UniProtKB/TrEMBL annotation:
Keywords tagged on the record: Isomerase
Gene3D superfamilies: Jelly Rolls (2.60.120.10)
Xref: InterPro entries: RmlC-like, RmlC-like_jellyroll, RmlC_Cupin_sf
Stated name of the protein: dTDP-4-dehydrorhamnose 3,5-epimerase family protein
Family: Belongs to the dTDP-4-dehydrorhamnose 3,5-epimerase family.
Source lineage: Bacteria, Bacillati, Actinomycetota, Actinomycetes, Kitasatosporales
This protein's record includes keyword Membrane: no
Pfam families on file: dTDP_sugar_isom
Keyword Lyase tagged: no
Organism: Streptomyces thermocoprophilus
Coiled coil stretches, renumbered: none
Top-level lineage group: Bacteria
């Protein structure tokens, strides 16, 4: 598999290398050792979620307060989705920056999102199913919600009609409002790469 860092530091795009024969194809979606070698962080799965969405459903931007934090490995297992990672870390040199990934089962491309990086996606087909491997169990009251249509973020959804959103997502604050209210994690709380001591350095 090919693992490359996104333009949002600490977030990674994971592209598998399928093996095909007359039966179909097989690929590794994630391998802990490869992800550790690329990111420096140990990723342990403590919860697995799935969402199923109608076409034109917009979910997010979602993140988790730190602590407890919740890194995610997100894959589209049915349908297709325009997936966007957004830097929510106050003080980050790329605060408010985003990176876009087109996800579908045909490519198997996934994203690894560390603490402090928000996630949103637009379902491009009916019955789009997204898989989330999570590093922590969900803790009520710790979710961060940011408006995915925040005009200052100007995320490239290329909407042809108003999206389908939850009431909670539609009422979410802008990134600037969330930062002013002290709702967001900081760059110091969520460094993109582990300190040298964690990696076994001096």
């Amino acid at each position: 598999m090919r693992i490359t860092e996104m333009t949002v530091p600490g977030a990674y795009r994971v592209e598998p290398e399928p093996l095909s024969d007359r039966r179909g194809h097989f690929f590794e979606s994630v391998r802990a050792g490869a992800l550790l070698a690329a990111s420096g962080w140990e990723f342990t799965v403590r919860q697995v979620n799935y969402s199923v969405s109608r076409r034109n459903t917009l979910r997010g931007i979602h993140g988790t307060k730190v602590p407890p934090g919740q890194a995610k490995f997100v894959t589209c297992v049915r349908g297709s989705a325009l997936d966007i990672a957004v830097d929510l870390r106050v003080g980050s040199p790329t605060f408010g920056h985003y990176d876009v990934t087109l996800q579908s089962p045909e490519t198997g491309t996934a994203v690894y999102l560390p603490d402090g990086v928000g996630h949103a996606f637009l379902a491009l087909t009916d019955d789009t199913c997204m898989s989330y491997l999570c590093s922590q169990e969900y803790v009520p009251g710790t979710m961060i919600d940011i408006d995915a249509l925040d005009p200052e973020l100007a995320l490239p959804w290329d909407l042809k009609e108003p999206p389908i959103r939850s009431d909670k997502d539609a009422a979410a604050p802008t990134l600037a409002e969330a930062a002013a209210a002290g709702l967001l994690p900081t760059w110091e709380q969520c460094p993109p790469h582990p300190p040298a001591a964690v990696l076994g350095g001096p």
